[in-house]
Amino acid sequence: MKASLYPFEKLLCATSQVEVLGFLDHQCAQLGYSCYFYSPLLREQGSERFFKDDSHIVTGEDLIRQNTFTTYPSDWVYRYQDAGHVDIDPVVKHISTSNLPVFWDDLNQGAEKHLVFDEARQHGLANGITVPVSGLNGDRALFSIATDIPPEKSREQRTATAGSVLMTALYLHEAVQRISRIASNANPVRLTLREKECLQWAADGKTSWEIARILSVSERTVIFHMANATRKLNATNRRHAVVRALSLGIIAP
Q: What is the pLDDT of residue 44?
């Protein structure tokens, strides 16, 4: 398990927006894309949207304050809001009805070619992938990664990187939510020493039986502590509990 988390350790351990941005810049370059966009989503009048105040243009520091991170061209961010594209964007429409990632060119085929994609291409966003993310508390977000390379020349790239883009979106959302909780002085998660020990060994890939042998306790005791830790971390399962504990700095990567 530890090896599979390795690319995201910096993100899991990030304690500030600056560290998140640093990870995204590096990850975007590693995947061969030129820019990215992450934003929480709001549901208004039955549709998904971002930019919390649609009554005026949100730019610069205002975007960061609402946990929107992007390296999209600033003139495209302005144009998108000014034209009200969120109301007609096929990508936003797609993620309102599906939790599956979407390749932009799949929504822009033949007679279905769309104004938003045409304008995005004019601003250097010729092709991309968007991943919708849902949190445990019903919070929603999207992560998009884009390139100026036309889709007909980048199909190999998108196939090779789709899994990494999906994983980036999941860990990014977890990191943003955690940093937001820290910033709002949320109540800290308090685990016992034994719960931390069990999580630490689980992060190293040990089974409950193996942890029991290491700690000289019964397997039932380990399962008990793991269940308590999972509940306290508001996690859905053992693996999720380990990821949460890593992201909160409760255990070491």
A: 56
